Amino acid sequence: MKSYYFDHAATTPMHPEVASAMLTIMQGSGGNPSSMHAFGREAKLQVSRARDTIAAALGCKPTELVFTSGGTESDNAAVIGAAMAMRKLGKTHIITSTAEHHAVLHTCEFLSREGFSVTYLPVDGTGKVSPEDVAAAITPETGLITIMHGNNEVGTLNPIEAIGAVAKAQGVLFHVDAVQSFGLLDYRLQQLPVDFMSFSAHKINGPQGVGALYIANGTPFEPIAHGGSQERKRRPGTENVAGIAGFAKAVDICVNNRAEKQLSMDKLRKEWIERLKTALPDVEIVVNGDENNSLPHIINLSFIGIDTETMLMSLDLAGIAASSGSACTSGALERSHVLRAMNLSEERLNSAVRFSFGLGNTVEELEDAAKIVGTISARVRTNV
């Protein structure tokens, strides 16, 4: 049976050149970057080269990048590290949105139990945060604002420059989760009103278990882990040399192919909608999110009248990988907190499926897969 991978927002297949770069290091002589001998110096050189490559791609200084284990750690480090630093200045209020990734939401819940107050801003029907709402929520106690750039479930882009300008004007730190948008959008961090930004390698055809956190020079920050002097004492622990090198290779590929990838992903996203509407003429298909202000590779669709879990199970059995965009708890599907935050109707909420595209996907694939979805739809509706 042929398989179709349409879940690149969850994780991406590793690019062959990334795997090759990592294998070269993993089959080498090894070495701890903190060691003084030749093996250690070579490992440290690999990490430094990778940091330089990624910093150049992001438009920041190499010293402003901290390597982590991925997006979740980067989000935790930024939110907790900034909150703890600002508490020393009497700032114990945090602003976020109801549509953030759980790596941010659960971290804010943790901080609320530690004495911080958190304001959860609403989003509009497309999943977007209003800069005016951000400005209205700021108090003299506000120390941190954390808002994602591209939503991982519906793809909607938030106006981070406008929100960042509001934060800067009030002397509030600003963190952006850019895990989904990195590799598709061009960042010049030194020109953005952003203090922290989170990234992950496995969303851009790099290895899992590696990420980075941008911390603008001079930004108040308290490390959340302790034990060593690595990463300028901001994130202790022996560096994942092969993973970091793979991350840099993935970034290098992204930079060289960003424009082409944007066009390709946007074409696939639009083609998928049209082909599904052709293959399912009797099903109302609704786009969840902002079609005109969105990441090019993510599309969230409601197949009105067809339950999400039923659709996902049927897709999986047919070899099509997609997602609800939400967590699975104890074997039961948990409805999307993002779609709930967007105040969608129950029929849209209960029939939503996220498709996301990337390396290896083609228009020909979409044509075949759309026909399969059409067959699934006809069978499911017949059995209702």
Keywords:
2 domains, alpha/beta, seven-stranded mixed sheet, Aspartate Aminotransferase, domain 2, 384 residues, 15% strand, Aspartate Aminotransferase, domain 1, three-stranded antiparallel sheet
Give a verbal description of the structure.
It is a single chain. This protein is an alpha/beta fold and 384 residues long. It folds into two domains: 4-12 and 258-383, Aspartate Aminotransferase, domain 1, CATH 3.90.1150; 16-253, 3-Layer(aba) Sandwich (Aspartate Aminotransferase, domain 2), CATH 3.40.640.10. The protein is built from eleven helices and 14 strands. The protein has helices at 16-26, 38-58, 71-87, 102-113, 131-137, 160-170, 241-279, 308-317, 337-341, 346-349, 363-383; strands at residues 4-5, 65-68, 93-97, 117-121, 142-146, 173-177, 196-200, 211-215, 285-288, 298-303, 320-321, 328-329, 332-333, 352-356. The strands form four sheets. Strands 2-8-7-6-5-3-4 form a seven-stranded mixed beta sheet, with helices on both faces. A hairpin with a 2-residue loop joins β12 and β13 (332-333). The two termini are 27 Å apart.
